[in-house]
Amino acid sequence: MPLNRRDFVKRVALTAAGAAVGAPAILRARGLNDKLNIAMIGAGGRGAENLKGVAAADNVVNIVALCDVDATALEKSGADYPLAKRFVDFRKMFDDPKAFDAVVISTCEHTHVFATMLALKAGKHVYCEKPLTYNIAEARLVRETASKLHLATQMGNQGHASNNHRRVKELIRSGAIGPVREVHVWVSRAWGFQSETAAARNKDIVFVTERPKDSMPVPQGLNWDLWLGPAPARPFHPVYVPGPKWYRWWDFGNGTMSDLGSHRNDLAFYALDIRTPLTIEAFADGPAHPEIAPATMKVVYEYAARGDMPPLTLTWYQGEAKPKIWTDGGIPPWPDAQLFVGDKGMILSSSDKHVLLPEKDFEGFVPPPETIPNSPGHYAEWIEACKGGKLSLANFEYAGWTTEANHLGNVAYRVGKKLEWNAAEMKATNAPAADKFIHREYRKGWEAILT
Length: 451
Prior knowledge:
- With 451 residues, the protein is an alpha/beta fold.
- It folds into two domains: 5-159 and 377-392, Rossmann fold; 160-373 and 393-451, Dihydrodipicolinate Reductase, domain 2 (2-Layer Sandwich).
- It contains 15 helices and 15 strands.
- The strands form two sheets. The protein has a nine-stranded mixed sheet with strand order 13-12-11-7-10-9-8-14-15. Strands 3-2-1-4-5-6 form a six-stranded parallel sheet, sandwiched between helices.
- α2 (46-55) links the parallel β1 (36-41) and β2 (61-67).
- α1 (5-26) crosses α6 (136-147) and α7 (163-174) crosses α11.
- The relative contact order is 0.17.
- Residues 1-6 and 15-32 have low confidence and may be disordered.
């Protein structure tokens, strides 16, 4: 059953206390040149990329354990690490937690919180792919638990380590475009509930209008029951896996909003110190589909003033939706970007570049001094933090807030009304119907991990 607020806070406190007791025995003092023993949960797909990323620093890490519900992915990754122990069920990996110091989690998002909480309770440093969790209650649990522990944590939003992020923040803080009152963020990916014609343009999408009722043969080597994990049971069907098709389905993921929102909304959170919205309103063609996340959607967030920064409106666009200034040709038509609108100008930014607009108003402009140190690299940042270095910037305290806000966009869409958000109580005060999307029920046997 979903946790109420009282039980939720109680469980957070108990979980954190238990982890804090165990941590000193497990976390041994290390020098920056000592090797870090890492366990990988998720060895194929995104997990294979993360494995390459952390293993690239081969003088400072050991890959000592590999886990995946797909035997083929496990065999492929294991060929490069013959000494690493192999697991199919990540719960079994924690039967012997002394074998590793840190965990990299690259499963599908509906199981993120379970692997993460097992790692935190065992006193392990944790890197978890984006989005940090499946829903808001899980994000709050992870963030509050991690905040009580002296562990290195990081969400896998690689752009947060970019030099471009730092330069944009310096520009905004220098007053180059004046106080920022609007931010527009857009991505062109259109994976979700869409027309058959639109689906046909994407090889990763199978057109469906409802959950399949028929059962298809499970691919050889895939443990379908473990892949489902805490989600409602159903027969296997290729509309879910292989590939990223699962993330369109509400039972397993949250579509483009929570996935790419972790990347694209990140710069606004970082540069403008935003955390919890006051209101959230979503717009799409028609009501929410009961099974599948939307392909095209617009979400408007209202934020209060922060320090000397004024109130802010952040608008998110995905799929076919774009800002009016983009469709009117008022800015370069970058397919995925952020537009910061200040009283004296604008900044258009993408993954690795930015431009001040209107360009004629900034001819001869001299950028402010670079005061924010560049990152040593996304994975290096976390590894250094694990070994006693500086806190990684995309840590769970920071990532927990961005994850909550992204999920709220989907909650507003699914409820079908503008939400008034009370972050302290974790409730939409004007929409009790939102509660079922803030929490979730788990299949029998899984909830115990979170207590």
